Amino acid sequence: MKTAITELFNIEHPIIQGGMHYVGFAELAGAVSNAGGLGIITGLTQRTPELLAKEIARCHDLTDKPFGVNLTFLPSFSAPPYPEYIAAIREGGIKIVETAGRSPEQYMPALKAAGIKVIHKCTSVRHSLKAEQIGCDAVSVDGFECGGHPGEDDMPNMILLPRAAEELKIPFVASGGMADARSLVAALAMGAAGMNMGTRFIATKEAPVHDNVKKALVAASELDTRLVMRAIRNTERVLKNAGVDRLLEIERDKGAKLKIEDIHDEVAGVYPKVMIDGDMDAGAWSCGMVVGLIHDIPTVKELIDRIMADAERLIRSRLMGLLAAESRASLEVA
Ligand SMILES: Cc1cc2nc3c(=O)[nH]c(=O)nc-3n(C[C@H](O)[C@H](O)[C@H](O)COP(=O)(O)O)c2cc1C
Fold it and tell me: Is pLDDT at 310 greater than 70 in this prediction?
């Protein structure tokens, strides 16, 4: 399948694996790129720019295909040295960066000078337009369903994607709630040039996370995510667990007076406990509503091949078939 996104990033299939803290290591990014999608290493999971340089080198050993690096600008307990991370990305020969969180405006000159294509992930039409205006090459439009930070507008993709299509000139992919061929075909119908998946890629053989995480995803339903940190305007969609129940209780107690320090134990340092140790009740970790559509743990290649084959069948048989039935009916009427 050829779309503006496959052309822009020189990939075979219009499927991107979004950056994911403690999941987006070389193993997963390399597997996604080898399967014809765009794999993305999560920059800030690497604690220093030197470690990121090593991770990039490891991914180059795993694939000859294009892969990218995610740079997330979110409120954190201590600000990372972004210019040094960008230097590691540039020197690692990376040509695609996924930015997220705040606007990447301040870093665009450095990224563009290095010939890097930037896809900015954001949750509203206004932020997408801003990304276009500051020179981003594409946008990942992240709906309210998404795992991670859906923003504060609560706009689901059925509205957000067609609105983005009405306004944007640069290509965009649909992000949030994407799991299979139905997601891809629907996203294309709404004007997207591909899709970005997070949660779905965690439940794959190559995702370098504890088996408990994959099993929890298969076991969970679409009713099992919760929104946390709304009171401090850092809303995150996470998988419900005992740590999240504690967090929600603190949030209920503190109300609008909630401060990040109040929930430090439930949100800080949780990812290694979950993803490496498999402690599923450690606290808040991102997970999308799409978890209700995850029923198996395939290899990345099986997942991507299945999506592309089913998408072709969906378009050729179901959609074209509906049109054919329609034209038969109109002939019979005539
Ligand atoms: C476990 C997990 C960790 C994530 N970490 C990041 C991150 O560090 N930076 C980022 O930009 N997005 C992050 N995301 C968001 C994903 O890149 C992607 O936008 C999102 O998962 C899409 O929604 P979906 O989960 O419904 O597919 C994370 C998502 C998950 C599930």
Answer: yes
